[in-house]
Design goal:
single chain; about 325 residues; mainly alpha
Length: about 325
């Protein structure tokens, strides 16, 4: 009787405790894989760093475009004011010098010339100085606007590159995390599959011993009745067999967020953001290219090498 109690209570109980421990270890390894996905989704999801970075890029882009629009206004003001001044200067009628110059002294010809000069200054002096000052001030304002817009342009390009660097970094972090977690999961899963088979074999053996013990306690010398005890743990004892639940992991999340081939100084980037200024009086400055090799080489994104699940955990 003690023997049967030991089997039913201690040994089968120990197998159940082992099963629970195996399941917990496997679940922890699976949770580690899921945590990689959770952290990635938090970074790229609503309210995450990626969304904030996109907002920052959009803000810098809008600042640049607004500035270039105003640059067009300052250019038109500058050319308008200066054109007015130039038109006045080009339309001036030069007073003719007296024939023979001023050698005759105070003559009617000299008086006529001096009167012409006085009339010229009276007609043009005030307006000319106003128009000249307007031209110079408008030119200075336009030059200042160009400096501001060029700075906004480079801020936009820098913010764009910073975002792409951060995206590549986040993709790399996820790739490394998921790869390491899956490798660990595979190792643990393989070990637990072996332990599960051993535990199930032990369970079936103990069930046979229980049957034999019960026959002996009943003073039965015929043990053939125990031949019907199932040798298939999962089928014969579905509610008691030490079975491990193996969940299917969520699929690896491809890194589609990098904007492949479209970064400052590329044709795509220029076409998307700067072609609107082509042929206008508000041209963009020389661009500043991204320096991060992961961006230029497209390490992650667009089917790049290194992007994608490296193990098959299922």
């Amino acid at each position: 009787m003690v023997f049967l109690n030991t089997i039913n209570t201690d040994l089968l109980g120990a197998l159940e405790a082992d099963r629970a421990a195996y399941q917990a270890e496997l679940d922890a390894a699976e949770d580690a894989v899921h945590l990689c996905d959770t952290n990635r989704n938090a970074w790229f999801g609503s309210g995450g760093t990626f969304e904030s970075a996109n907002s920052d890029v959009d803000g810098k882009k809008d600042d640049h475009e607004t500035c270039r629009t105003q640059e067009g206004v300052t250019y038109n003001n500058y050319t308008g004011y200066c054109s007015t001044m130039h038109s006045r200067v080009c339309s001036w009628t030069v007073c003719d010098l007296p024939e023979g110059g001023f050698g005759d002294g105070d003559s009617d010809a000299v008086n006529t010339y001096m009167t012409c000069v006085c009339d010229f200054f009276e007609d043009h002096a005030g307006s000319y100085y106003d128009e000249r000052n307007n031209c110079l001030e408008a030119h200075d304002l336009h030059d200042a606007q160009v400096i501001v817009c060029d700075a906004d342009q480079h801020d936009f390009e820098g913010e764009y590159c910073s975002r792409e660097t951060a995206v590549q970094g986040a993709c790399g972090t996820y790739d490394s995390c998921r790869f390491g977690a899956e490798q660990s999961y595979l190792t643990i899963k393989s070990n637990i599959e072996d332990l599960e088979q051993i535990a199930q074999a032990q369970f079936v053996a103990l069930k046979h011993l229980v049957c034999y013990g019960e026959q002996i306690l009943n003073n039965s010398t015929d043990l053939s009745g125990c031949d019907s005890v199932s040798d298939d743990c999962e089928t014969g004892y579905p509610d008691a067999c030490p079975i491990i639940v193996y969940d299917v992991l969520d699929p690896f999340i491809d890194c589609d967020e990098p904007i492949m081939g479209n970064y400052p100084c590329t044709g795509l980037f220029t076409a998307q953001f700067y072609d609107q200024y082509s042929g206008t009086k508000t041209p963009v400055d020389d661009c500043t290219a991204c320096t991060d090799s992961d961006i230029i080489g497209g390490r992650f994104g667009g089917g790049a090498a290194g992007n994608g699940r490296k193990t098959d955990p299922n």
